[in-house]
User: What shape does this take?
Amino acid sequence: MAEFGLLIREAKLKASDGRTAEAAEILRGALALWRGPVLSGGGGPVIEAASTSIEERRLTAAEQLFELQLALGDAAELIVEMRELVQQHPLRESLRGQLMLALYRSGRQAEALDEYGRVRELLAEELGIDPGPNLTKLYEGILRESPDLAGPEPAAAAPVVAVALPAEPPSTLPYDLADFTGRDRELAEILQGARSGSEQGPQIVAIDGMGGCGKTSLAVRAAHRLAPDYPDGQLHIDLRGYTPGDQPVTAGIALDTLLRAVGVPGNLIPDDVPARTALWRGTLVGKRLLILIDNAADAAAIRPLLPLSPGCLVMVTSRARLVDLDGAQWISIGVMPPEDSAMLVAETLGAERVAAEPEAAAELARLCGHLPLALRIATARLRNRPRWTLQYLAERLRDETRRLDELSSGARSVSATLRLSYQALDDECRNAFSTLALHPGSDMDVHAAGALLGSSARDAEDLLEMLLDVHLVQQPEIGLYTFHDLVRSFAHSLLVEAPEDSAAVERLLGYYLTATEVACDLLYSGRRRRSTGIEPSEAELPRLATPEQARTWFRREQTSLLAAVTLAERRGHDRYVVCLARNLVFQLNDLGLLEEFGELSRVAVAAAGRLEDLALLGVSLSNLGVACWKLGRLSEGLEAARESRDVAVRLGDVYTQAHSESILGQFNSLLGDFSAALGHMETAIAHERELDMPRAEAESLTILSTLYEQWGRYEEARDAARRSAELSRKLGQHEGLPGAITDLAFAHVGLGAYEEADRCLAEARSLYGDAGNEVNLALTLALSADVENRLGKPPRAPDQAELALDMMRTNSSPLRRAKVENVVGRLRRRQGDVAAALALHTHAHELASSLSYRIEQAYALAGMADALGDTPDAIRYRAEAEQLFTDMGVPADHRRS
Assistant: This one.
């Protein structure tokens, strides 16, 4: 405050001597000392009075500066700054009058008069008074276009005299960080760009990136490397475009600083910016200087500082890519790669501490989002707290609501850094930024963004691109946008529970529900549409005209769709939970994502229960039954399927009843009760035919075919599989077709028709393609290897049996893994690899026994006995297998071999 007061007095003296331009520059310097509100909210009436007094001094200085600038002929360039202060102090008439005068002198008479109307309404509403006589007189003068209000004529430009550089080349670069780490690729790119040369003007290399990503440190490192190439000097100027508590440096002050740095005496520096620019450029003619312009907010702040002649290098850093800075070579930097983050943590914290907790160090880097500023703050806190372990700080950072608070140390703060980027946005972008943070997924496309914002996809894309320009969002690929983890945390900190946020979330959920309905109709022909009780979304949908487009969209949006269900559950939108889950389970089942299928089905059952909607409950329980069957959770699945059937019977919902009967048939088949299973399947298929549900009938027929094959009734298994395949072909859908054809191949193997089985399996493999359901594809590959061996064909390269085993090792279907291991175990025994056969059958037996999967338990025991030969264990295993086969009614001459 003492320095501020001295500068104010000096400015008054200069102004009284008629040295208006010098007084204005001094006042700018005084106001640049300001660091935001003083003692804000920090105590009682005494402190508040002191705070008010200090703020008044600042405002008075600002008004004096505006008065001097207006006297110098400035007008248009003052309006933005004046408006900001008027918004902060809307009842201050003197400030409003200066804004009105600046607008009038800029040829914006209507806006000047409008400002008077605003303040008159505000004064009447707030205080019940009219504007004072001075403001009223100004208003009347503007109305009649009084010549007294015209600004002064611009002063004639003083002749520019170039000044020789000092003998000792100036160097004002900041020091190069001793622990600077990583960024080798970006550094090489900057050095290459700087050395590529320009014959028409200065070489300009500009670096953009989000706040805290280390732009300045990287630019300083590059500048020191390049310094020998610029013997006439290396200069640094911080424009403070994004500096907490600081006003951006004006072009006049920046030029004054640079001119003095190259040895121009203060008395030779002109008052106005154009003359200073001319002197600056004239002084650099024929010179080789490196100029680092740091922290620029816009291209307008940079242009007056650019030399015109070649030989100079200008390096620029900015949070935004300043696309209107012509001739610049832009280099964008993002967060650090994980390996560079690890190096930075080790360098700043010490290799020994990192070596003692390597996993915690890696987690720390991840929680800091690999952002250099966050990493340096975190390691600084650890250095200052030697008793803290890396694991302890990582645990504190796991709480997303506290993460930004933890990443603050002294004057450095990730939150403050991000807030400056946010505050530089206009109102529309700020609102969009916080609203888009409601999206629950890692990535969002323009259609989801449009739904959230209540706009078209094109308008949403424009806003996203603006946020991308200032690095508040990232773009992992064309059409997709994402928040950096710390930016997302910052955006969440801005959110307050408001009706518009709830409306945005519901728009997003409605969009996802409508889009998944359309995608499911394309992918799963014959699927019965059910009433959701929710109006279709009016949001613009992505292009979903073909099954392939729907499949691509589903896979790309899968994570976001699952997150949307969680969001709906958290906000109490249970109907969206159930209806979205019903659509998603089709895709999860197709992709073999069984754990997700099961968890989503449980969430849907709970939501349907809260809604007390029996129809939705029945469907959700039925889906849960399917998931449990595939996951091998037979007890839970049986209970869900029975409850689903009972609910359907109570409601007279024959569709859900048929599906539940089919699932009950599957469970009884797995448990080895083939007669009960057959009864359920016959009931299900009869209902499905009566209701004309070919898709559901095709699915039930594959279950029936598998039941018959396990029972040794191969002709009936063949007929059921053929009928299922025919229905799938008529429907034009392929997700169930390769499974039906594989079932048909199993029936042919039981009948000894190996050539027929081989043809079926070739077709099934071609239908799966490269991106098939691995759970089903693994069984097809295992049986293919078995059949080709029976036909005397050499094994393929790579071995299909091994591919099948590899797929099942990473899959969550123990039922399918047991069956695949038994198929490959029999193959390995025929190939003479008894040890491999025994290991496979033994593991299949463990899985099947734990699940009560009786048929595969029996085949595993038989395989173990065959592998062990005539040993006591083999005799015991064979007897146990025979007992299981007898209990299930599988004849000895109708078993797999």
